[in-house]
Amino acid sequence: MPITSEVRGLGRLCLVAGAALALAACANNIPAPTEQVTLSDNIIRNAETAGAVEYSPVELNMAREKLEAARRQMQDENNAEARRLAEQAEVDARLAELRSRTQTTKEAVAAVQASIDTLRRELNARPTS
């Protein structure tokens, strides 16, 4: 019996459908990203401690919103999307923390520089003996 192009096309269609089903099955087997959510939550707290509320509020709020969205996706058992959002929350929180620490460091450097300038003025104002 000769294999017609219709049979070949049907075979390819079955192969594609099987692959799609396998991918869907794999997608549903993704475990809930509870560790990633916990990690992102901790990093958000670190960013808050570093002063992100004051120095990097946009990134901090983005991290918070993405983490909440990740939690909602976990409740709906969309674990792949939950993981993606939790990872994005982690990145946003790390950026907020780094910006805050950078700004804090710049302020400390400025304070030290001001002290040095004051000392120089005082030394220069002393009468020479």
Question: Which helices and strands, and how do they pair?
Answer:
Layout: H1 5-28, H2 34-49, H3 52-55, H4 57-75, H5 79-125
Helix pairs in contact: 2-4, 2-5, 4-5
Summarize the structure.
The chain is mainly α and 129 residues long. Helix content is 85%, strand content 0%.
What is the straight-line distance between the termini? 117 Å
Tally of alpha and pi helices: 5
Tell how many strands the DSSP assignment holds: 0
Average pLDDT confidence is 90
Shape from CA axes?
A: elongated
Which residue ranges are poorly predicted, with pLDDT under 50 across at least 5 consecutive positions?
none
The ordered H/E elements are HHHHH
Q: What is the chains' assembly state? A: single chain
Helix fraction, binned, reads: over 70%
Strand content: under 5%
Radius of gyration: 28 Å
Structural class: mainly alpha
Largest sheet: none
Description:
By secondary structure, the chain is mainly alpha-helical. Helix content is 85%, strand content 0%. Helix 2 (34-49) runs antiparallel to helix 4 (57-75), helix 2 (34-49) runs parallel beside helix 5 and helix 4 runs antiparallel to helix 5 (79-125). The radius of gyration is 28 Å and the shape is elongated. The protein starts with a helix and ends with a helix. The mean pLDDT is 90.
